[in-house]
Each structure stands twice: as C-alpha cells, then as structure tokens.
Recover the amino acids of this structure.
C-alpha cells in the first residue's frame, strides 16, 4: 500500500492517532493529498470517489459512512479507494461542526419546530436508570439532521469534486512534464556516452592500425 508504515501500530496508538494524529493535522492532510494524487484512475473517478466520501460525512449515519461512500462512488463511477480516503473529511474534529450545521439547517427546513425531545441532564446514574430517554432525544434529532445533511452533502460533493479534479489535472500535467524532461535528459546523456564511446573506439582503432 502507498506510504504504508513498516511498523505496526497498537490499537490504542491508532485510537490516539484518530483523535490527534501524531504527525500533526497539517502533515496528515498532506499525506492524504499525496495518497489521492497517486491513486490509479482518471481524474473524474478519483475526484468523484473522494467527493462521495466527503459528502457522506455530513450525514448522521456513523458506522455506515464507508458503505454509503462506496454506494455513492459506484453511482457516480468514482474510485472506491478514493471514496474510503474521502471519509477522512469526517473526523472527531469536524463531526461536531457538521452535525450542528445539519441539525440547524434541518430544523429550519422543517419549519423550526421538529418536535425535538429535550435531552435529559447527563449523569451516569440517570443514563443507566432511563437509557431510552436519551435514545428518544437523540432519535428525535436524527430526522432534522438527515434533512439538513442532504443539501450539505450535495454542496460538499460538488465542491470537493471540482477541487480534487482540478488539482489532479494540474498535478498530472506537471508530473508528465517533469517525466518528459527527465527522459530527455537521460536520452541526451546516453547519446553523449555513445558518441564518446564511438570516438574512443575510433581513436583506439586508428592507434592500433597506425
């Protein structure tokens, strides 16, 4: 696998890296971009795949984002691996923002009165005594989040698709030019060595027959 670490991480190390990457958020973002850039496939398939993964991150269906991303990527002829990478847009740092936005938008779309059940005051004792009260409160918020998440997912898909496709086209164009220049330099070096070999061989022949 591209850029895969040779050292196997422990379970707790992976959990810690999920919440706070050891390499830092900026380097982790660059790592993701490099992985996307080196994926095989057309710019459309990779961009559509990544956009699909990013789009489903705005839905409240935690635990099903990979399946949703694969389904959306398949429908848009996107790259499945790019879709899996795209789900990294949804993470512990962005989910609170995404879900707050989708809940607010969904509540507005539903007329500002979606019949939300107030969340009981939190305590372990209260939760153990009446877990269904918390479940009911969360479930009442789920529908507004779904309604609000749909337009957010569509907007996110369009934005990420445009950005990733533009990035890939430019990246591959620059890379092709670099490879062409390197190939030309190599060809010139080989031709120069061949000419020098011919000159040396001719000089040796002339010296032998003189």
């Amino acid at each position: 696998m591209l850029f895969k670490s040779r050292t196997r991480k422990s379970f707790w190390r992976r959990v810690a890296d999920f919440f706070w990457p050891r390499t830092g958020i900026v380097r982790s973002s660059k790592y993701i971009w490099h992985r996307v850039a080196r994926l095989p496939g057309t710019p459309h398939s990779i961009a559509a795949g990544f956009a699909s993964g990013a789009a489903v991150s705005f839905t409240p269906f935690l635990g099903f984002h990979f399946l949703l991303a694969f389904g959306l990527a398949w429908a848009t002829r996107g790259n499945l691996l790019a879709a899996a990478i795209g789900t990294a847009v949804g993470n512990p740092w962005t989910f609170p923002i995404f879900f707050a936005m989708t809940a607010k938008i969904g509540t507005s779309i539903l007329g500002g009165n979606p019949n939300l059940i107030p969340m009981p005051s939190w305590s372990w004792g209260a939760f153990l005594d009446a877990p269904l009260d918390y479940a009911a409160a969360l479930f009442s918020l789920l529908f507004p989040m779904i309604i609000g998440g749909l337009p957010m997912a569509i907007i996110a898909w369009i934005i990420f698709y445009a950005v990733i496709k533009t990035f890939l086209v430019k990246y591959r164009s620059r890379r092709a030019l670099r490879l062409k220049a390197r190939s030309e330099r190599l060809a010139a070096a080989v031709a120069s060595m061949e000419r020098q070999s011919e000159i040396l061989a001719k000089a040796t022949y002339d010296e032998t027959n003189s």
Notes: The helical segments are 11-19, 25-37, 43-56, 65-75, 80-86, 95-109, 124-129, 131-208. Residues 17-176 form one domain.
